[in-house]
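In the laboratory, one determines a bound structure by crystallizing the protein with its ligand and collecting diffraction data. In a computational setting the workflow is compressed into a single prediction: the sequence and the ligand go in, and a structural description comes out. We illustrate the idea with C2E.
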Amino acid sequence: MFFEVQPGSDTGDRRYRELVEQLDMPMLIHVDGTIVFATQAVVDLVRVEDLQALKGRQLVDFIHPDDLEMVVAQMVRVLAGEPSERHRYRIRRADGTDAWVAAAATPYLLGDVAGALVVVEDITARLDAEAKLRASEVRYRALVQNSADIVAIVSAEGRLTYVSPATAAVLGREVEEVAGTDVRRWLHPDDTMVIERLIGRLRHGPLGEGSSATFRVRHQDGAWRHLEAIATSRLDEPAIAGVVVNARDVTDRIAASARLRRMALHDSLTGLANRTLIEDRIKQAVQRGPTAVVMLDLNRFKDINDSLGHAVGDVVLAEIADRIRRSVRSGDTVGRVGGDEFVLVLPQAGELQDIRATVDRIVSTLQEPIEHGNSRFRLSASVGIAFAPEHGTTGEGLLRAADAAMYRAKRERSGPSVYDHRDRERSIERLALSSELIDAIELDQFELHYQPKYDLASGRLIGAEALLRWFHPTRGLIPPDGFLPLAEDTGAIHAITRWVIDTALAQARAWTEQGHDLSVAVNLSPSSLQDPSFADHVQAALVAEGVASERLVLEVTEQTVMADPETALSVMRRLSDLGVRFSVDDFGTGYSSLTYLRMLPVTELKIDRSFIGDDCGAVDHDIVETIIALSRRLGLQVVAEGIESCDATDYLRSAGCDVGQGFHLGHPLPAAELDLGGPACVAHEHAVHGSAGSHLAS
Ligand code: C2E
Ligand code: MG
Ligand code: MG
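The predicted complex, in structure-token form:
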């Protein structure tokens, strides 16, 4: 109701007045600052008792002191007939609290009295919310600005309306340079579609829905960085009006997985293609035309590994890989398929002579000296060549053919060999032989021959070396060199070595029973010394046959030990602790250091027969005498093997060599045929028959 301020107020209007009073809108009329009308909503706003309590109150009573001046100025203008804009100011409520309002006032004539109609809106809650929003925005901004997260807002048109510092950093630029630009400017051309599709999808999808994508952006340095992003549509939210992109830089991760993929197809040491990739390349090349597959195997590379260590071996392999890579055309593939086996795939192979020229070029670069630290050495390679379609059409078949040709080249020490039918027969033979080898023990096809060892000074028989023979049902006698490498390759060697140990010890026991106190020497292959259970087997066999461990001599070569010195040494120590003796066979042909020799629990050196010479060749006096002197120094027994003549026997005896072995003194023979009779004496024979002296076991 109107306060009864104006006498002219008409009771007929009362109903309207009451109606207006009920409006849920704070609205009042004042005359010169005195409130003459207000709605119930004003009562609620300023927290007075009721409408009556407002009657005659001054508007300024409810204005916050700080805003008073501004509000009064506005009132004056309105009372002068000038409508005002909406103003924001604070009011002071009856209970002393403050609130924010937005108010607009219009001149209002009450009869001839000039008043003003003020429409008020309580905006406290909204301002609070806004303040909170601002605060949280500040907080979020602070978080985003300082975090490593790549955050950007992209408008529907593709403009970057916000970029976090990390976003700019991933581009190698300043925020100012990037903000406001078209996002496509930074994208990899192949990836712009990804982003467009993403924005398109989000534009039509529900608000807040996330979608992920991976794309590349260009860093200022020209490199492409890979980003993995999640985009969320905030297109409908006026404060953002865009797609919020949260991204991570996954460049390193992608590089790492690419490296992993490469590793699956490449040899990690040299970076060359591995067998899988090589076979694939061969397949592709064969489909396109004539192809050559070249297999290169380094000669005696194992010696480098064994003598200088695997680390040097690796450096050498990497160097070799480089040299080969530099010597081929760009379409050729170079791979490494085994320790020291390299393969070339030469597509569109022309004439054989062209292939040979390529191969010769590579072989001669390989022969150039390699320097490492103080070492300087030359390598050579054996090479086999196979052609598609003549020798095969599959990767596997061609590799096998090239391998077989390479084997022949190695065996015959010839230059590069081209595969031919003989290689096929040989590889078929190898295959057949390896399966027969497995059954040979069961079928009782092995036999040991024993070659006598004499004390050179006294001529006394002191023992025999057990040498393995394979009596093959169709091929006849196969010497150890003819099947032992195969046995190594197939793993059959373990069973074979055990059989040899058992048989040799059974023989030693038989000799004892016949009254002969002889030692028996058994040759070990490299894998025996890498087999930790080998010592157990030997120990059990010694016990089973009741043979004193001192009577067993195990012959190892420098290479046998150097393949894995640690393991070999521990196996050797265990056996030597039992009393088993060790002899270094073929001494003088390896590269190993004398330091190792000191570490090994050996009691004997066997001078390699190449230094003893054959019937025609002369003994290498320097080397033989040096080895004898060395043995003396180290307190080792020294044995000369391969003695084929009386002269050699005489010389070795006079040079101080302890023990002799060789065709001149006795061929390897089955135990039953061995002449153990009496104290047959080399020295004695020599004394009696002179240089024409017969030998014992002929
Ligand atoms: P090795 O241990 O150096 O054996 C000596 C080889 O020289 C034997 O050849 C023997 O027959 C031969 N030989 C002996 N005296 C003379 C001679 O005066 N002149 C010439 N030119 N040669 C002579 P074999 O029996 O063919 O054995 C060859 C190699 O096979 C052996 O060399 C040994 O390393 C290995 N081997 C033999 N039996 C076994 C075995 O049971 N296990 C293992 N792992 N290797 C064995
Ligand atoms: Mg031997
Ligand atoms: Mg030998």
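The chain has four domains: 3-121, 126-255, 269-419, 434-695. Keep in mind that any predicted model is a hypothesis to be tested, not a measurement.
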